[in-house]
Amino acid sequence: MPDFFINGQPVHAERGQTVLQAALAAGFYIPYFCWHPNLSVAGNCRVCVVEVEGEGGGGSWSDIACNMPVTEGMRVLTDSEPVREQRKQILQFILLNHPVDCGVCDKAGECMLQDHHYAYNGEPSVSTVPKVRATKYFQLSDRIVLDNERCIVCSRCVRFTREVSGSHGLGIQHRGDHSLVRAAEDGAFNTDPYSDNVVDICPVGALLSKRFLHKARVWYLQPTPSVCPGCARGCTVNLWHRKHEWKLNHLDPKQNTEIARVTPLANPAVNGPWICNKGRDLAALFERPRAEQALLKGRPVALGEAFAAARRLIDDAGRPVALVSSWGSNEELAAFKRLLGSRFSCFVKSDQRPAPGEVVEDDILIRADKNPNTATAKQLFGEAPVAFPDGADLVLVWGEGFDFTQLPRGARVIYLNAYLAPENGHADVFVPISIQTERGGHYTNFDGHTGSFERLFAPKPTVAHAEDVFAKLATTVEVA
Ligand code: SF4
Ligand code: SF4
């Protein structure tokens, strides 16, 4: 482990670390655009320039910190007058053709160029010639638009498709002022299941999500940590939604309870800093039409009446079977086991299966099991496939994914589901339940890592939490 000095202070570095990596790890900030901790070093933006003091009174020299290995005893200055001056010039250069779009740019508020300009330059452009114009709102793919005027040609997006997703989907055409990021003709950017990560890693507002385009200023939003339930990987994510203090009362109040966007929450043990596009589309999954009314054979009833009817069915059943949800949280699954597990023959059900056209599995993140908590469910209820023993006369179905035509003949049905579905009205008892965004809990992924999710929105009063339903249904069973 070499020791070296940053601004006169001794700093330890891991063997092989660059000056930029060692400085950031030790709490010395050096600005950067093109460098990214999970991509190769490109060294093209030059803004991480530092000064290295010469040995034995020799002259000092400047170099980029991202590409300079630490050597024993080297002395680095990150904030000297020459460094400050060079950074200013680099920012003047990077901003030469950059439009002042901040007022309409989705990246405003989390743009590295905005931040670095204010921190290290802060002066008007010295250029006296018009900015070079380039394409705006260029359709880079079905999901992403590109503003070439805002692109600072850092190549992060290009490296991502080569080094992480492997689609080789992006490249840079032409040179100098006329450089343009474009989808490679022989690449597969449009079908790259990880393409939206380039929106996050673009240091400026050049790459933008079409779904989020001009939907909200980021300072109106707040992130809530969660787990993507899209597959057994269980990526750690942030679900962004409108802050309470920016609540809309008249202008589209629906936005107050919508997921505005989904971004990765870096978790080295599970997903690193990335997620797949399915995780970005969680809003569409969660915001499907909801079931909000308890039913007895399609007849609307209060929740209490539905619980009472379900309890009677359980009391009267000879051989009750439960199909347990692989979308239940650890807490809900444990509650079912504790409260009802001894009364039912239990089988774990796959709530979701791969959708047509979806990437089923790869060696990056995506898992073939499209359920977040199969691991815990099978640990508690076994691996046996769903099967109905002879004489099964009651089936409790928890969650989606079961084909009701497979029900044993004559069996009564208690159905717990969160979404509108034709089966809801056919069940003897139907209870609408809350979804992940309306409660807290944990999932354990295929690899044994447990992730937690927090509540974003309150459920409707006519909707019950599954854990509460199990407690209500257990009352009579325990007394009996
Ligand atoms: S589009 Fe963004 S990430 Fe790609 S090269 Fe331009 S600035 Fe960099
Ligand atoms: S890999 Fe799986 S868990 Fe991760 S974002 Fe994609 S669907 Fe969600």
Question: Please, could you describe this protein's structure?
Answer:
This protein is of the alpha/beta class. The relative contact order is 0.10. The protein contains 12 helices and 22 strands. The longest helix is centred in the first third of the chain and has 14 residues. The protein has 3 domains: 94 residues, Roll (Ubiquitin-like (UB roll)); 88 residues, Alpha-Beta Plaits (2-Layer Sandwich), CATH 3.30.70.20; 180 residues, Rossmann fold (3-Layer(aba) Sandwich). The mean pLDDT is 96. It binds iron/sulfur cluster (2 copies).
Layout of secondary structure:
Blueprint: E1 3-6, E2 9-12, H1 19-25, E3 49-52, E4 61-64, E5 75-77, H2 81-94, H3 112-120, E6 138-139, E7 144-146, H4 156-163, E8 170-173, E9 180-183, H5 197-201, E10 207-209, E11 221-227, E12 236-242, E13 261-264, H6 277-280, H7 282-286, E14 294-296, E15 299-301, H8 303-316, E16 320-325, H9 330-340, E17 345-349, H10 374-381, E18 394-398, E19 412-417, H11 422-426, E20 429-432, E21 441-444, E22 450-453, H12 466-479
Parallel strand pairs: 1-5, 16-17, 16-18, 18-19, 19-20
Antiparallel strand pairs: 1-2, 3-4, 3-5, 6-7, 7-10, 8-9, 11-12, 12-13, 14-15, 21-22
Helix pairs in contact: 2-3, 8-12, 9-10, 9-12
The structure holds iron/sulfur cluster (SF4) (2 copies).
